[in-house]
Amino acid sequence: MAGTTLPATTPAAQLDIPALRRAVASAVARSFDKPGVPAPASGASPQQLDMVCGLLKRLVWKAYQARVVKKVRVTIDASDEPDVACLKGMQPHKVLGKGIHGAAWLMKDAKTVAKVGEVYLEKEHSVTRDFDRARREFAIARAAGEAGVAPAVKDAFFCCSNDDACYYVIVMEYVPGTDLHTWNKTASAAKKADMRERLLRRTAKLLEAGIEHMDLHAGNVMVTPAGDPVIIDFSLAAWARRGTDGAEDADSVNRIYSKTESMEDIVRYVAHTLIAAGDVHVGAGGNAAAEGTQKKSSARTRSGK
Question: Which domains does the chain have, with CATH numbers?
Fold first, then answer.
């Protein structure tokens, strides 16, 4: 029989089914690629579905973790304030956010934001990859601003302070508003649908400008008081590859607005999808018989000793 027959009595931890893992990963990917599209009808009873969900939960969670890039949380403290000597006379007021590659500071004029990140030198003070990455971010952020999808870049430069620490600084216009994650919490379904379409148009404009953001999540989108999305943080962005269709950025937008956001929803989506496709078989009455799915027992167990 094609597909995998799941046993009702075998814990998920004991399952060792590469084909099932691949089927789960594929179903999880579809839940992101086509948000809001319901899973195909599986015909499974509630009892059968609950049983399959229980067995698949761990596999789905692992596939979900592999699909979603984990963000690194960085603690912000007063010692992170940039060296004023490196800011060309600008005075930092407060930090707006911090990522792996730098912190965004609102200046006291309330009109300017400076992203400040440290770059590291080798012992011989030769230029390292940090400078190359920073230069790329300079150019891409400027191009994105000119395309009208990101804050306008006013200046970009390197500087070194008296203690030999070197920084890169990107000076941008301040975009008032809130991040998309916060905005989504109170937005209506209709407004969310409209925002999703607006963001997809923004990613298309990025691609027209030859840019792939590569890290587009709700924390990297600001929503202005007028409701316009503005894309920020191009530290991981890249110039678009020849022939690319921008699918990764579009996929990121779809993931933000996927209707299968909770783990329970995703597990049930995957269960329906796998049963309907014949990747998983369940018996009548909520039972399922094992067929080549369990790890082989030891010789000691088989011999009955």
Answer: 78-173 (3.30.200.20)
